[in-house]
Amino acid sequence: MAEKIMPHEDHDDLEKPSLDEHVEHTGEALWTDPRITTFTVEEQKKIVWRIDIRLVLTLGFLYMISLMDRTNLGAANIAGMATELKMNDKNNAYTVVSVVFFLPYAFFQPVATVVIREIGPRRFLAAIVLFWGATMIGFGFVKNWQTMAGLRVILGALEAGFYPGCIYLLSTWYPRYQLQKRNAVFYLIGSMASAFAGILAYGLMQLNGRAGLTGWRWIFIIEGVLTCVLGIFSYIMIVDFPELSPTSWNFLNEKEADFVVARIEHDRADIQVEPFHLGTYLRNGLDWKIWGFSMLYVLTTTNSYAIAYFLPIILRDGMGFDIAKAQCLVAPPYVAAAIVMFVQAYYGDKWHLRGPIIVFNAAMGILGLGLLGYTHNQALRYFGVFLATTACNANCPALVTYQANNVRGQWKRALTSATLIGGGAIGGIIGTTVFRAKDAPGYKPGILTCLIANALIIVITAALTLKFWRANNRVRAGGKMIEGQAGFLYTY
């Protein structure tokens, strides 16, 4: 018979947390709770793996198509869209079409996290994916850039609930020190879209002339159809929140569901959802660390969106590569970013580290942008692309885990997810406006903006670390509780 889990054993994700860095008041309760000890170590791992497949992998593939759909403008632009729709330096149409996405994307996020809590993630996420896929198909038939801008507004409104909804849903299913690996895999799968979207776009461009449509239109049409298919499939795979009846999940039995709930109760004691009250929900915004997390995400997504939207253009206009090479050379830096973000996530969870990883990535971003913007050797500049791309993309899962680890309560968690990803929308607006066509080929204002953003990440993370360190010392000395929970300590 398989051996039952014992307190002194080390079992990777299932290892016993340090009482100095975890929820101290639980003591040995976690390791004597019959809802947990009824399963062997191997059985526990199998339950967690089944959750990973249903949640992390499914959401990751949806995020992949989401990133592909919102950032394929760069590929379409150099494939002939700008010429056909009369986008030029005078009307600045490409920047307008890029930016208008982020206005509804930011505005609707707080509302979306309330809606997903009320109607359930499976119905909500599957529906918005299906609808934005249909919108993407429409992109392939527009006659002018103004119509495309209008469709981008609709796309922003539909996608507003997706990313914060996914981050919120993941944070409700996993203990704090198993979360960054899951966030990293979710983001890693999504990053593959950025890595290979250029190659896919180049392939779809070869359909030029089929059915009387130019190649850039096929990029939107085929990717839109793929989005609709994944939206339908996601309704089967996505599961609802862990405190709901397991009959709504159809992949865990009652005892396995109790195991999931018990882990969250011992980790942060916020499994139960209080009734929604608008005033209470908004009062969570009085906690200034929420806005610190949001600002960090503004700054890192300023970099990530700038690179996603403009890297093919920089490679073509700024570094002199032809269209085929510009599309394909986007991939290797994103592959490197995926490897780095997962390694960081593994050790971040293992060592309970968040802030130092974020600071390291920001410093790497400064170095990479410096090489890209202020050297003339093409090999060095492309190496700078690797560093800058890795830095901002690896910081995204690190930051969403950083905020999830340091808040309690379902509605506060929902608001924090919304403000964080809403900050990402603001970063998107900045990132898509600082790289201007008139600044080619050096794009110095855009490079400088991203450099400053990385420097500010280091400053804000240092300020939060100081706050968290002082608060933890206060709790250890018997002072005021953190987040209203005895023994709860910040992770930094």
From TrEMBL:
**GO molecular-function annotation terms?**
transmembrane transporter activity
Q: Which residues cross the membrane?
A: 93-112, 124-142, 154-173, 185-204, 216-238, 290-311, 323-343, 355-374, 414-434, 446-466
The record's section on InterPro entries has:
MFS, MFS_dom, MFS_trans_sf
Keyword tags: Membrane, Transmembrane, Transmembrane helix, Transport
A GO cellular component annotated for this chain's UniProt record is: membrane
Indicate yes or no for the key word Transferase: no
Give the chief site where it resides.
membrane
| UniProt entry tagged with the keyword Cytoplasm | no
The Major facilitator superfamily (MFS) profile domain sits at 55-473
What domain of life does the UniProt record list for this protein's source? Eukaryota
Q: Per UniProt, what is the membrane topology? A: Multi-pass membrane protein
**Compartments in which it is found:** Membrane
Q: Which PANTHER family match?
A: MAJOR FACILITATOR SUPERFAMILY (MFS) PROFILE DOMAIN-CONTAINING PROTEIN-RELATED, PERMEASE-RELATED
Q: What is this protein called?
A: Phthalate transporter
